[in-house]
Amino acid sequence: MTNKIGLTLFAAGLLAATVMFAPYAPSAAQDRLTTSTDFSAQQQQENKGQQKKAAPAARPAPQRAAPQRAAPQRAAPQRAAPQRAAPQRATPREAAPRRTQQRVVKTAPRTVTPRRATPSTVTRQKAAPRVVKQPKTTPKVVAPAAAGRKPVSPAVAPRVVTPRGTRTVTAARLRGVPARGAGRAVIRGQNYSAWRSGYRVRHGDGWRTFVALSTLGGIAIGSSQYYPYAYISAPEPYCDGLTEDGCELMWQEVETIEGDVINQCVAYCPWQ
Q: Of 191, 197, 211, 265, which is closest to residue 235 (Cα–Cα)?
């Protein structure tokens, strides 16, 4: 029993020492306190086993133990590991097909009675005949304006002409005379100008322009007909005979646009 009391007193003293030095070294005191308490507990168990075997000894005088103050122990915070929940798989439910019952509604047939349309009588009004009076118009008489130029009426029937002199070839060909402007005509070795339109000559105190060749009309020599083809500036002694392409040279009076009549050499050909 004495050993047991001594051990308890020793443990109490160690606890008191740890309480006194706890403010200065809290962490070290705590470690020492835990080691001392574990050591004292082991010694107490060993002493209990020895006391049972050993004989009882003299009891020492009881000693008063100082009150012991237990140092507060701080428990370490425990961290709980997060638990992962396994994902749940929901099994799809198969919905049963709905069956709808169609209601058959029987409708009674409708009987429609057609209406008889009454014939409508339309009375037509007799329209009076419409008389339209037309104004009387007097014929308008237009007097022809006096023109300084003398109109020339073309001859319709060919004139029958008897050529003078011998009908021998005295001039070159006239087929190449241009339609506008002056061309060349060779008569008995002399060069003269040939005009098919717009031929002008000096007469009196001014210029005179001959009428168009188509106004002269054609001529008939025997059974052949000739048409006016060109004006030639040759004088009367040279305006006689035939050309190499069969044209007849005629000296005759020709009207001008100004109204005068002037003698001029004209070539008539079997073609226009």
A: 265
Question: How many other C-beta atoms can be found within 10 angstroms of the C-beta atom of residue 246?
Answer: 15
Q: How far apart are CA 191 and CA 184, in angstroms?
A: 7
Give me the pLDDT at residue 232, please: 96
d(CA 210, CA 198): 7
Output DSSP code: residue 88.
P
- Give the DSSP H or E segment for 190: strand 190-195
Residues 6+ apart with CB under 8 A from 19: 68, 69, 70, 71
CA 6 vs CA 10, 17, 35, 70: distances in Å: 6, 16, 19, 19
> Do 231 and 264 contact (CB within 8 A), yes or no?
yes
Q: Is the predicted pLDDT of residue 54 greater than 50, yes or no? A: no
Question: What is d(CA 240, CA 168) in angstroms, rounded to the nearest whole number?
Answer: 9
